[in-house]
Description:
The chain is an alpha+beta fold. The protein has helices at 8-32, 36-52, 54-65; strands at 5-7, 73-76, 81-84. The protein has a three-stranded antiparallel sheet.
Amino acid sequence: MPEIYVYRKASLIAVLAPFVVFTILSVVLLFVxxxxxxxxxxxxxxxxxxxxxxGDLYNTWLYLTRFKDPRTLTxxxxxxQTFYVPMENxx
Length: 91
């Protein structure tokens, strides 16, 4: 939704939630499944999932390294994310 601005914390949660949930689920399945083919497909899914999350992981890295101010806003228009950082003297 191009006209919605989200704070840093909410954006971090939204970006990391799918990565964390599906990664944990896949790793648990790898230990539970005994059929080698099911384990192979689970591992394949895990690899594709992590690759698909690369943009989200990059955004997380940006939040943790460049945009540390909790007042930072993000606008996601789909192909482009814009970060709005408050000026130093703004309160």
